């Protein structure tokens, strides 16, 4: 359900960890489940779905699209294509942040180890408690995080949700952590660690003193309040967010809606009025755009655009089959049959300062014993994304840059930066093209390489971080690769900043929306 009439609520994805620190795993053969996973990969990812009639009841769906269930004898199964009475569970939160899963139908608790799983315990004990690790790792932050906006806009709205030792921290885009007193600090500590709780499908953050984060005061400063039980002000929703971009036209001016409803390339400075939101419809894979008005209904044909990737520039084709061009006075019109200088735009992604990538086989991470990158890891590394005249430089935590060797290996020891191009080929997916025209590929062998040309399905589709927000507090998120074919021409939607918000995104995002504001 959308809480602001603009974005749809996301379903939680996470891993479940038992008392032996093993992950609940869904096997493809026989749809069997066990608790034997050492790390969180595809088989260990579960999606939490709420019952529409009873918000306390949840369903757990595996990566295979089948639902976890238990019969009256406590026997566990995971083969149901649709949730039935045996698949209904209640979440019983524990004081240390762990969960106990209780069968609603039979009032027994789920637990166990290895292949010996059951849902037959009458009381909560060591064997029936599990930890959670969320998968999706606008807040205005200067020296504090303020809940003061209905929609996250710009880079200062980004926050990363960091998981460590069963607790979560909120990390801003300038690498500071939110403390429970509302201050932003450079180092993580006990005061920056929060337990994530689920209440009727909404999230609450409990600090080390048992108090909950909430917006406080006239500025909506996010800090721990006095409540030891979460109420309306302490609950947050997960909602979808989208990449935001700035367009520079051939006249070296930024495309803007500052002058009103009409759109012109006539500004010298980037502000919210020069920021647009890119969106892709999940179902039809057609884009839509809304300018100047809120929109929640079906998109119209004339709001759809195709985006064509042309090296360091992009061209936009309108629904009438014509390309958008920039006139001498800066006005934009969809009247061109072909692409020339006036039809090309520099597109700059402004709300993704960091990059986390996941391919078909796992996360992208530094290789332990070399300067290369693995693309099949269960843990991820965070990289910096630096814009450079239509291209991007990717920098590792040690200050060295990504570069492509003569044999196609992607290395992370470059002293000088190398150009990479991001092509948003589908909802939540991005292809990365190197300066030599090859696309990055992660294979099952685990090595990230620049070998694909032209772009092929699966291996070149990587996922990127997106932003999340707590009422306008973004936190970082991850999305997944797609096995379907992609092309170098993607359809996107463009949304202006001025009281305008719509849905769809090549790099997804989520918002954590404060209930007080909706």
UniProtKB/TrEMBL annotation:
<dbReference type="GO" id="GO:0016477">
    <property type="term" value="P:cell migration"/>
</dbReference>
<keyword id="KW-0009">Actin-binding</keyword>
<dbReference type="InterPro" id="IPR010431">
    <property type="entry name" value="Fascin"/>
</dbReference>
<keyword id="KW-0963">Cytoplasm</keyword>
<dbReference type="GO" id="GO:0030674">
    <property type="term" value="F:protein-macromolecule adaptor activity"/>
</dbReference>
<feature type="domain" description="Fascin-like">
    <location>
        <begin position="361"/>
        <end position="450"/>
    </location>
</feature>
<dbReference type="Pfam" id="PF06268">
    <property type="entry name" value="Fascin"/>
</dbReference>
<dbReference type="InterPro" id="IPR008999">
    <property type="entry name" value="Actin-crosslinking"/>
</dbReference>
<feature type="domain" description="Fascin-like">
    <location>
        <begin position="250"/>
        <end position="346"/>
    </location>
</feature>
<dbReference type="GO" id="GO:0005737">
    <property type="term" value="C:cytoplasm"/>
</dbReference>
<dbReference type="GO" id="GO:0051017">
    <property type="term" value="P:actin filament bundle assembly"/>
</dbReference>
<dbReference type="InterPro" id="IPR024703">
    <property type="entry name" value="Fascin_metazoans"/>
</dbReference>
<feature type="domain" description="Fascin-like">
    <location>
        <begin position="157"/>
        <end position="238"/>
    </location>
</feature>
<dbReference type="GO" id="GO:0007163">
    <property type="term" value="P:establishment or maintenance of cell polarity"/>
</dbReference>
<comment type="similarity">
    <text>Belongs to the fascin family.</text>
</comment>
<dbReference type="InterPro" id="IPR022768">
    <property type="entry name" value="Fascin-like_dom"/>
</dbReference>
<dbReference type="GO" id="GO:0051015">
    <property type="term" value="F:actin filament binding"/>
</dbReference>
<dbReference type="GO" id="GO:0015629">
    <property type="term" value="C:actin cytoskeleton"/>
</dbReference>
<protein>
    <recommendedName>
        <fullName>Fascin-like domain-containing protein</fullName>
    </recommendedName>
</protein>
<feature type="domain" description="Fascin-like">
    <location>
        <begin position="21"/>
        <end position="125"/>
    </location>
</feature>
<keyword id="KW-0206">Cytoskeleton</keyword>
């Amino acid at each position: 359900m959308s809480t602001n009439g603009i974005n749809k609520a996301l379903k939680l994805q996470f891993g479940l960890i038992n008392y032996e620190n093993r992950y609940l795993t869904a096997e493809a053969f026989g749809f069997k489940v066990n608790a034997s996973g050492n790390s969180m990969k595809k088989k260990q990812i579960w999606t939490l779905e709420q019952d529409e009639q009873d918000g306390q009841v949840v369903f757990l769906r595996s990566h295979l699209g089948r639902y976890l269930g238990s019969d009256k004898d406590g026997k566990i199964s995971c083969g149901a294509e649709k949730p039935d009475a045996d698949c209904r569970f209640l979440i019983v939160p524990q004081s240390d942040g762990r969960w106990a899963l209780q069968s609603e139908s039979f009032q027994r608790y789920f637990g166990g180890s290895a292949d010996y799983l059951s849902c037959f315990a009458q009381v909560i004990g060591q064997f029936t408690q599990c930890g959670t690790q969320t998968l999706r790792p606008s807040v205005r932050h200067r020296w504090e995080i303020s809940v003061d906006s209905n929609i996250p806009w710009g880079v200062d709205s980004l926050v990363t949700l960091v998981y460590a030792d069963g607790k979560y921290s909120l990390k801003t885009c300038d690498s500071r952590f939110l403390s429970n007193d509302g201050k932003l600090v450079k180092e993580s500590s006990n005061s920056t660690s929060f337990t994530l709780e689920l209440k009727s499908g909404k999230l609450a953050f409990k600090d080390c003193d048992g108090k909950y984060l909430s917006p406080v005061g006239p500025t909506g400063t996010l800090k721990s309040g006095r409540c030891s039980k979460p109420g309306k002000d302490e609950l947050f929703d997960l909602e979808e967010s989208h990449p935001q971009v700035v367009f520079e036209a051939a006249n070296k001016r930024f495309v803007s809606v500052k002058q009103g409803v009409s759109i012109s390339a006539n500004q010298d400075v980037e502000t919210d009025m020069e920021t647009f939101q890119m969106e892709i419809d999940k179902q039809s894979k057609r884009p839509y755009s809304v300018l100047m008005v809120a929109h929640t209904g079906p998109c119209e044909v004339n709001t759809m655009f195709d985006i064509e990737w042309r090296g360091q520039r992009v061209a936009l084709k309108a629904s009438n089959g014509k390309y958008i061009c920039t006139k001498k006075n800066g006005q934009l019109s969809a009247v061109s049959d072909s692409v020339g200088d006036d039809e090309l735009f520099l597109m700059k992604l402004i709300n993704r300062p960091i990059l986390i990538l996941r391919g078909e086989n796992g996360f992208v991470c530094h290789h332990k014993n070399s300067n290369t990158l693995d693309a099949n890891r269960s843990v991820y590394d965070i990289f910096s994304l630096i814009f450079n005249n239509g291209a991007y430089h990717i920098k590792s935590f040690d200050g060295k840059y990504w570069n492509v060797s003569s044999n196609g290996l992607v290395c992370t020891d470059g002293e000088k930066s190398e150009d990479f191009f991001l092509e948003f080929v589908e909802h939540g997916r991005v292809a990365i093209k190197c300066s030599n025209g090859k696309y990055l590929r992660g294979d099952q062998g685990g090595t990230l390489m620049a070998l694909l040309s032209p772009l092929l399905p699966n291996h070149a589709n990587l996922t990127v971080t997106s932003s999340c927000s707590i009422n306008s507090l973004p936190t970082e998120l991850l999305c997944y690769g797609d096995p379907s074919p992609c092309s170098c021409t993607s359809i996107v939607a463009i949304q202006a900043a001025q009281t305008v918000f719509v849905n769809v995104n090549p790099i997804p995002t989520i918002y954590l929306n404060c209930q007080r504001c909706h």
